[in-house]
Amino acid sequence: MAAKVTVIGSINMDLVAQAERFPNKGETLLGQDFQTIPGGKGANQAVAAAKLGADVTMIGCVGDDPFGQPLINNLKEQGVNHCQVETIEGVPTGIAHITVADHDNTIIVVPGANNHVTPEMVRQYEEDIKASDIVLLQFEIPLESVKEVVNLANQHGVKVVMNPAPIRSINLNLLEKVDFLTPNEHELKILIDDEEKDTFYKDNRDRFFVTYGSEGVHMVEDGEASIVPGYKVDVVDTTGAGDTFNGGFAVAIAEGQSYAEAARFGNAAGALSVSQFGAQTGMPNREDVMKLLNGELG
């Protein structure tokens, strides 16, 4: 039976412009291409987990504008359970304005309907959370709603993976309730921004899986610190790489893989995603991830 992963988070339409380089302040450049691509950290992670073989439920909101229904349809097409996605009248769907240049990207996110993922809405889907093997969260919905999800998951003994992005400062009480935290090296500094939280980090290193891009993941298991290395691939587009890692990591943890195995699985999925254009469109299936892990690709 497939692992049950519930993702509560953002659903966006990515507005992606490609250019030879990033514009300077006040400068106008001619772009090379433009596409609208389904995105949002929550939806990205849900699609990544579904492509990797999990039974995935997405909880979130879209607007009643032209982007909303296509995003719901996309979740359905990708094999994500979408009945818990609500359409909010009179509110625009969240968007991410992405510029891709020099094998990298810049992103501006406008939350829109994602701000309507309220604690009250979260409580409506308590049974879905309760039935999960793992819950996966990010910070593109209101922080109060993130707290509500964590509290409900704790009540029902469901483990939580929190990807603290886009990063914001949170209190120690919330940190203490999360089983797995997946910041990158920059987000970690903000996450443990006072003495109490820094002490918590030092005492609970086994909860932190710090991503360093292609270098890999820094982690601690059974008291031993290690770096789970990344995979070298030809980079086409880094958009969604972190989301793909988190989707893969959550699936592996839900399946009962060891921490190191889960980090390795997430690394392989994330590496394959950057070799294709687009966030969700570049995400790999489980067969290709296993081939990379087994040395049959690359």
What are its keywords?
alpha/beta; 13 strands; four-stranded mixed β-sheet; six-stranded parallel β-sheet; globular; UDP-N-acetylmuramoyl-L-alanine:D-glutamate ligase; 298 residues
Question: How would you explain this protein's 3D organization?
Answer:
GO terms for molecular function: ribokinase activity. Catalyzes the phosphorylation of ribose at O-5 in a reaction requiring ATP and magnesium. The resulting D-ribose-5-phosphate can then be used either for sythesis of nucleotides, histidine, and tryptophan, or as a component of the pentose phosphate pathway. It is an enzyme of class 2 (transferase). Pathway: Carbohydrate metabolism; D-ribose degradation; D-ribose 5-phosphate from beta-D-ribopyranose: step 2/2. It catalyses: D-ribose + ATP = D-ribose 5-phosphate + ADP + H(+). With 298 residues, the chain is an alpha/beta fold. The protein has one domain: 3-Layer(aba) Sandwich (UDP-N-acetylmuramoyl-L-alanine:D-glutamate ligase). The protein has 11 helices and 13 strands. The strands form 3 sheets. The chain has a 6-stranded parallel beta sheet with strand order 5-4-1-8-9-10, with helices on both faces. Strands 3-2-6-7 form a 4-stranded mixed beta sheet. Helix 1 crosses helix 9, helix 9 runs antiparallel to helix 10 and helix 10 crosses helix 11. The longest helix is centred in the last third of the chain and has 15 residues. It is globular and about 50 Å long. 47% of the residues are buried.
